Amino acid sequence: MRTDLCDRLGIEHPMVAFTPSEHVAAAVSRAGGLGVLGCVRFNDAAELDAVLDWMDRNTGDRPYGVDVVMPSTVPTEGSDVDLAAMVPQQHRDFVRRTLDRLGVPELPAGQETGDAVLGWLHSVARSHVDVALRHPVALIANALGSPPPDVIGRAHERGVQVAALAGKAEHARRHVEQGVDLVVAQGHEAGGHTGEIATMVLVPEIVDAVGDRAPVLAAGGIGSGRQIAAALALGASGAWMGSYWLATREYAQTTGGSAMQRALVAAGSDDTVRTRIYTGKPARLLKTRWTEAWSEPDAPEPLPMPLQNILVSEAHQRISAAEDPEVVSMPVGQVVGRMNAVRGVEELMGELLREADDTLARLGRLR
Amino acid sequence: MRTDLCDRLGIEHPMVAFTPSEHVAAAVSRAGGLGVLGCVRFNDAAELDAVLDWMDRNTGDRPYGVDVVMPSTVPTEGSDVDLAAMVPQQHRDFVRRTLDRLGVPELPAGQETGDAVLGWLHSVARSHVDVALRHPVALIANALGSPPPDVIGRAHERGVQVAALAGKAEHARRHVEQGVDLVVAQGHEAGGHTGEIATMVLVPEIVDAVGDRAPVLAAGGIGSGRQIAAALALGASGAWMGSYWLATREYAQTTGGSAMQRALVAAGSDDTVRTRIYTGKPARLLKTRWTEAWSEPDAPEPLPMPLQNILVSEAHQRISAAEDPEVVSMPVGQVVGRMNAVRGVEELMGELLREADDTLARLGRLR
């Protein structure tokens, strides 16, 4: 199963894995797909640099990529302290009250509260790009659409392809006009930031809009070989999968988080919710007692990006430390219903490829 | 392109068209698919009988089916008058105020307000089944899941297959255990009543749950041959399409409604909204000034089924008579983005089949 995407990225199989885990990303690249490391968790560029050094040694000389969260125009932004001052007390009170009610302990005494995730800030995302371009990356993907023109230009100078996520055909058109090489058509059922239009509808719409100028990757809901084949049927050149890798042994190597993995393995496809509580923009999360609390009558409206993530930053650390599968804050797509055990990346890749190939063979017999 | 569905229903192509228009249903059956006539609009069983007589003469001796809206258990229900008394005045006031604000005229003097749609009532849906079973129907589909056991039994005695819509795998399992022959896996992006889980995720999940016992039809978002091929890739035995036929000349023959068709043709895939305002249960509608009015701060919560439809029944008639494309009340799926002209059913069927076949050929070359 080869498409134009394979030649373009120098990969064996038309499968791209987005993941915050370097262990997952490297394993996917080694297995013949393209591992794409999410950078948003790196507040410190030097830390990202060290992880990419690790990637350079652990992908078996196969290509890999990075994913940043960068608006195409530079917004007004302040320091961490300025932004924190913009979070209303009412919101802080709700978060504190909710964590108490859900039995989430304070962080252990002496354990410092870490910084909020700042990767959403333009300046921080730009530092990620600077670091990535010093490594032999094959792809820079941007979760917020087209990166600024100078970033696209610098990537192209180094022979690095640029991908951008799109939830509407008009976004995809704009991305391609601004020089983006690959469009990721991400449907409503995807984890994390996601739009209204479902993958089944969105992918052919974006292929019709830009497919003659840029390969389209299908994202949202994909976690089986049948779905990869369906993505190809819709006109995509490959599949972009994110959530599916959260229930892997390699993911646990990076983040720990066994309660989170237990919660994912137990969840069905109807156990997600699309909400603004994670970042301020609509994102699909695992439905847990934490997300449900934000639907209660006493819950405030989530704040805009980046304030909401600053608001919930300490809560995320407390929740993560508490290791309670019923109180988890985790972006995941509806594909969570297919994630029923913690397994290894290589095994999952093999299974996906075999099923995709079997599906193409089955479809061939229908003609 | 033949699947087990073709043999089972005696049709040439694995495509089922759900439509309230007998002209569309007959044209689809004549073109080798299965036309399934929606019965919910027939308050009077004799009227349905006459329309099915017409179907018997106009399908070219090809099979056709009917679709009813019948809960599997008999709910408490009253007469039209009893039910009308349960509609709060506050809701009536909001509807009247909104129609005035949107410039929707009163019905012309002397024109009587028709009855509300009563097809949602169990007794009325049962009368539809009684009538249908006097005709040579090949299929009875139920939009609300498994019909009651005696209905399934009577259908089977006459060699009529029973289909049921499902928005979750657990529903599909229950349907099959209760004797349903075919499951329609209807994703979030579908028009009308619809659940949370998107077609890309739902179809393989339902195939895995019941596919060894009942063929599964994919529904929700389908309006191209690529999507039909994708549905087959996901494991479906065929496609169930509803919204797509609303922008046809045959549909206009049944209902008129040129403003409605103009609105559909102009709409994009992001111009729908899932709301309870049509029937009291979540249903996807075209987003217009009418649906937007129900999101305003002064709008009441929609009433439960069947009261909400009784509440908006006169409004629907006024809206329909007003012929304003900006004020339309119409269930339609996200596939509305692909409906860009009013065309004939035969032409659309030919195009869908050609593209599906081309897609299967293209996929065959990827191996």
Automatic annotation (TrEMBL), chains A, B:
Give the UniProt keywords, A-Z. Flavoprotein, FMN, Monooxygenase, Oxidoreductase
Residues of the signal peptide:
none
Cite the GO molecular-function annotations of the record.
Answer: monooxygenase activity
Q: Which InterPro entries does the record cross-reference, listed alphabetically?
A: Aldolase_TIM, NMO
User: Superkingdom of this entry's organism?
Assistant: Bacteria
Q: Which PANTHER family match?
A: 2-NITROPROPANE DIOXYGENASE (PTHR32332), MONOOXYGENASE RV1533-RELATED (PTHR32332:SF38)
Identify this protein by name: Nitronate monooxygenase family protein
| Organism whose genome encodes this protein | Saccharopolyspora gregorii
Q: What is the lineage of its organism?
A: Bacteria, Bacillati, Actinomycetota, Actinomycetes, Pseudonocardiales
